[in-house]
Write a structure and sequence with these properties.
The protein is an alpha/beta fold. The protein has two domains: 131 residues, 3-Layer(aba) Sandwich (Rossmann fold), CATH 3.40.50; 172 residues, Hypothetical protein af1432 (Orthogonal Bundle), CATH 1.10.3210.10. The chain has a five-stranded parallel beta sheet with strand order 2-1-3-4-5, sandwiched between helices. Strand 4, helix 4 and strand 5 form a beta-alpha-beta unit. Bound molecules: fe (ii) ion. Fe (ii) ion binds next to loops.
């Protein structure tokens, strides 16, 4: 191990010992800083923690003693190894300090060779800990990356399934993708966090997944649905939850998916939630979903003109929709229009 420039802090109230340690370390190739008591040591550590490679610390000092220094390092800079210097009579205490986090101890009077050997072991131990931490960090990042890739590909597959279902019907073609696109534009206007943006994108893409469980006859029926058929259509948010439930990484999105047809005034379905009871991301999807539905052609009606659909959205602020989301929708409207061919 390269010793040059390794910065060691030596703390002892006896000047002779400080000098011996400093001289020994410097002739061996270390850089050494000394402190005459615990409070001076803590001050130096606070200033130089990033550079200090190890601390050699006397246990018995007036005022701020060695055990306070050991505790301070253990709680604030646990990576710095501490070697305790102790009299033979304090051996029990030294062992207690090792339990507290000190690396090792030396009994006074110690041999220079012994000091250098213990210090070298301490530095090697520190290096090992740093490498372990780095490796751990690398592994965690890798696991996160692979999991995200995996989750994303599952969502893309489910998204593809939804698209395939929408494809069969000219009137719903591309609906979920457009809702996801409008939602992501709104997310930017509403300053959502990165995590919320990702969740919103996924939830918007998957919001109608429950339609997989509804018969095509009802989904594509031209003309008005009868009461029974309407009740079946209304079951698609809960059916979506059932379909996605086995995917543990989507658990936190289920309440949003279930609530995308709730109304701000409590008159929506399936649970009649109102206002703040409705998950915030569901309130965003609701607006984008309705806008896309209104501006798309249906088997039983022509699409509403874009401006008329916007007027309708504004009119429903506070009744069907969260007024804050409507405000954001209006602010984002030009960007939304730009995405429509
Ligand atoms: Fe829906």
């Amino acid at each position: 191990m390269e010793l040059e420039n390794k910065y060691i802090l030596a703390v002892d109230d006896e000047e002779d010992i400080r000098e011996i340690i400093a001289e020994t370390l410097e002739t061996t190739g270390y850089r050494c800083q000394t402190a005459a008591d615990g409070s001076e040591a803590i001050e130096i550590i606070n200033r130089d923690a990033e550079q200090i490679a190890a601390v050699i610390c006397d246990l018995k000092m007036p005022q701020v003693s060695g055990d306070q220094v050991v505790q301070f390092i253990a709680s604030n800079h646990p990576i710095i190894p501490v070697i305790i210097l102790t009299g033979f009579a304090q051996l029990d205490m030294a062992l207690d300090h090792i339990r507290l986090g000190a690396f090792d101890y030396l009994t006074k009077p110690f041999k220079v060779k012994e000091l250098l050997l213990t210090l070298r072991r301490a530095l090697e131990y520190r290096q090992l800990k740093e490498e372990q931490a780095k490796y751990h960090e690398f592994l965690e990042a890798k696991i996160k990356e692979v999991t995200a890739e995996l989750n994303n590909s599952v969502i893309q597959s489910v998204g593809a399934l939804i698209m395939a279902i929408e494809e069969k019907d000219v009137y719903t073609r591309g609906h979920s993708h457009r809702v996801a696109l409008y939602s992501s534009l709104l997310a930017r206007t509403m300053n959502l966090t990165q995590d919320e943006k990702k969740d919103l994108e996924y939830a918007a893409l998957l919001h109608d997944v429950g339609k997989i469980g509804i018969s095509e006859y009802i989904l594509n029926k031209p003309g008005k649905l009868d009461n029974v058929e309407y009740e079946i259509i209304k079951s698609h948010p809960s059916k979506g939850v059932k379909i996605l439930e086995p995917m543990s990484f989507l658990q936190h999105l289920l309440p949003t998916i279930e609530a995308h047809h709730e109304r701000f005034d409590g008159r929506g379905y399936p649970n009649g939630l109102a206002g703040e009871q409705i998950p915030p991301l569901a309130r965003i999807i609701a607006v984008c979903d309705s806008y896309d539905a209104m501006t798309s052609e249906r088997s039983y009606r022509q699409p509403l003109a874009r401006e008329a659909a916007l007027t309708e959205i504004k009119k429903c602020a506070g009744s069907q929709f969260d007024p804050e989301v409507v405000k954001a929708f209006v602010m984002t409207y030009d960007e939304i229009l730009a995405t429509i061919p």
